[in-house]
Write a structure and sequence with these properties.
Blueprint (H helix, E strand, L loop, with lengths): L2 E4 L10 H9 L4 E5 L10 H12 L4 E6 L23 H15 L9 E4 L10 H18 L5 E5 L8 H10 L6 E5 H6 L3 H8 L3 E6 L19 H9 L6 E4 L12 H10 L3
Parallel strand pairs: 1-2, 1-8, 2-3, 3-4, 4-5, 5-6, 6-7, 7-8
Helix pairs in contact: 3-4, 5-7, 7-8
């Protein structure tokens, strides 16, 4: 498995080359850039160009980008609406797609090959209308991403539209054969169960968000600090036809301990090897 570190670990800081160098020194082969404006300002050509220049000179791979969750610099704490392509209001859905396209445009300079997307919010329900909105958004965003060399990956969450079974239904109903999945192990542990999620999403799993919890809340702990059955999870993942990338997505509270990063990353990735 490709070893990838999500920059979610550094969400409280501006993403700069020094943090990318820290990831590389700690054993990461790639990164997933978390598109939050206070961390990575995808709307700033200067910020995008700064990171693009670093990637051109270093072997660390820009494997993926996580699509923005909010359009502001405060993750919605000041009242900005969430980026939600399933929102009942058409204007909100259009705004959400526009924000995701702004992030996708960074691929013109930073050659990431995957965009991890959320469909809806935790309170959104499952209905024919949500299926229609999802298919329309994915068709539109897929057409925008394709010329940039980017593949869309849908992440399983804890809301109704984003269970593994419903995500699979959306892609099947929409004949969206080019779209894959990012299996979030922590979210699966809280909902359908990891084994069932892997069985449902199957060979279209292109990446795996690796973090731990106690099956109650989304804690984003280091693997082994919660109660996920890691041997069983790894066994099921290894049965897939091709190995997905392992993307460590750890809570940014742990990003203030850079000295511990190499050892914790090595311990986490060792579970998969």
């Amino acid at each position: 498995m490709l070893r990838v570190l999500s920059t979610h670990l550094f969400l409280g800081q501006r993403l700069h080359p020094g943090l990318l160098e820290l990831a590389a020194r700690s054993g990461a082969q790639g990164v997933e850039i978390f598109a939050a404006r206070q961390h990575f300002d995808y709307s700033s050509r200067e910020h995008v160009a700064e990171l693009a220049s670093w990637f051109r000179s270093n072997p660390l791979q820009p494997f993926s980008m996580h699509a923005p969750l909010f359009p502001d610099r405060e993750m919605g704490r000041a009242g900005a609406p969430a980026v939600n392509v399933l929102h009942p209001e058409k204007a909100r859905r259009i705004d959400a797609m526009d924000e995701i396209k702004r992030a996708l445009e960074a691929a013109e300079l930073i050659p990431f090959s995957n965009l991890v997307m959320h469909l809806g919010e935790r309170t959104d329900g499952w209905s024919q209308r949500s299926v229609e909105y999802a298919i329309n958004a994915l068709e539109h965003l897929g057409a925008f991403a394709h010329p940039l060399g980017v593949r869309l990956l849908l992440e399983n969450l804890t809301g109704e539209p984003t269970t593994p079974a419903h995500l699979a239904d959306i892609l099947e109903l929409g004949h969206l054969d080019s779209i894959g999945f990012c299996l979030d192990l922590g979210h699966a542990h809280m909902t359908a169960g990891i084994g069932d999620a892997i069985a449902t999403l199957g060979s279209r799993i292109a990446s795996v968000h690796v973090h731990d919890n106690h099956a109650v809340k989304d804690e984003h702990l280091w693997p082994g600090d919660g109660n996920i059955d890691w041997p069983a999870a790894v066994k099921a993942l290894k049965a897939l036809p091709s190995p997905p990338a392992a993307v460590l997505e750890i809570d940014h509270a742990f990003g203030s301990e850079p000295a511990k990063l190499p050892a914790r990353m090595e311990q986490a990735f060792a579970l998969f090897e």
